[in-house]
Design brief:
Layout (H helix, E strand, L loop, with lengths): L1 E4 L2 E5 L8 H24 L3 H8 L5 H21 L2 E8 L4 E7 L13 H15 L5 E7 L3 E8 L2 H9 L9 H12 L13 E7 L9 H10 L4 E6 L5 E4 L10 E4 L5 H9 L4 E4 L2 H15 L1 E7 L1 H23 L4
Parallel strand pairs: 4-5, 4-7, 7-8, 8-11
Antiparallel strand pairs: 1-2, 2-3, 3-12, 5-6, 9-10
Helix pairs in contact: 1-3, 3-10, 4-5, 4-9, 6-7
């Protein structure tokens, strides 16, 4: 059972025990019934003049406050036995993340300063710095082929050095990058129950597949392994690279348009239940990585707050006892 409380949610892990609140409700009803009978009895056997003369000395609300606190304390104990919990964000220590970065020649475009690749490298390094220390990180680079530069490891410094050493190459093989990333994930051992650790792939590219296995085949394999792929389309529609023709050295370099392609990357993310992002600046790319990091680097768990409810109930019991002794020289 889950209840919303202003800016947080309260969940009861043993919600079936909340039925005991009916006992508290019955006790409250009995108290009110006895109070009504007592009042009618007093009016029946007392003259109105006498009743008015002593009304000013009646304890009034003080008579009922200890009982009300006592009932609230009982309700608090019932809530405590139902194991109340609130969601809390914790680091995912066994999670594994593969970062696949496109190093095709189009990543040389300078529509993102100083270039798409250099901007992507800087943002990726900052992203790795923000990940939980015990999270496994792997790096795959891809152009005409894909290669695992760093298998999943907790040595984040190694992953950052590999990012710094990325070099450009020809063609784009997104399908191969996904297959290679999935193979890299297999190197992470399962837990004691045989379950593989939670895994995700973050794939950054600016184009579409031109060589290698089809993206659809790679997506099907990712779905079968229950691995979501978050994709980032990095660059702008105005991107271009300069091409020098070695056969005609006297001709100036030609501008070859390399606009970022989003449709294929969006489809990959949607089909694998990942998230698609489009980034056209270094700032946007950094924000994207921050968003991804908060999603894959942490998880929400229910943290019991039973002690708070139990201590609150004991406090109410104590307050009821103190007030009753102070006002009536007896316990409620």
């Amino acid at each position: 059972m889950t209840l919303p409380f202003f800016d947080f949610t309260l969940t009861f892990l043993a919600a079936n025990r909340l039925w005991f609140l009916l006992v508290v409700a019955v006790l409250a009803a009995v108290y009110l019934m006895l109070l009504g009978r007592r009042r009618r009895y007093a009016l029946r056997f007392s003259s109105s003049e006498l009743f008015q003369s002593i009304a000013s000395s009646s304890p009034g609300f003080r008579r009922h406050l200890p009982a009300a606190l006592f009932l609230l304390a009982m309700a608090g104990l019932v809530l405590a036995t139902a194991k109340p919990a609130t969601p809390r964000e914790v680091e995912r220590e066994r999670a594994t993340l593969i970062i696949a970065i496109d190093v095709s020649l189009s990543m040389e475009a300078s529509d993102v300063r100083p270039s798409r690749l250099e901007a992507a490298q800087a943002a990726a390094i900052e992203f790795i710095d923000e990940l939980p220390p015990k999270m496994n990180v792997g790096l795959v680079s891809f152009a005409g082929t894909a290669a695992v530069l760093v298998p999943p490891t907790q040595d984040h410094a190694l992953a950052k050095r590999a990012v710094e050493g990325l070099e450009l190459a020809e063609s784009t093989a997104i399908g191969e990058a996904i297959f290679t990333s999935l193979d890299a994930l297999k190197s992470v051992p399962a837990d004691s129950t045989g379950e593989p650790p939670p895994a995700s792939i973050v794939l950054l590219s600016d184009g579409e597949t031109t060589v290698g296995r089809a993206d659809s085949d790679a997506v099907a394999e990712a779905v079968s392994q229950d691995v979501p792929i978050s994709t980032i389309a990095f660059g702008t529609a105005a991107g271009f690279i300069l091409y020098d023709d070695p056969n005609t050295p006297t001709i100036e370099s030609d501008r070859i348009p390399v606009p970022v392609s989003e449709s294929n990357l969006r489809r990959i993310a949607e089909d694998t239940e990942g998230t698609f992002f489009a980034a056209a600046t270094v700032t946007e790319l950094t924000e994207v990585y921050t968003s991804i990091g908060s999603a894959v680097g942490t998880e929400l768990v229910d943290q019991e707050v039973t002690d708070l409810f139990a201590l609150g109930a004991l406090g109410l019991f104590g307050l009821a006892a103190v007030l009753s002794l102070l006002w009536f020289q007896r316990l409620p």
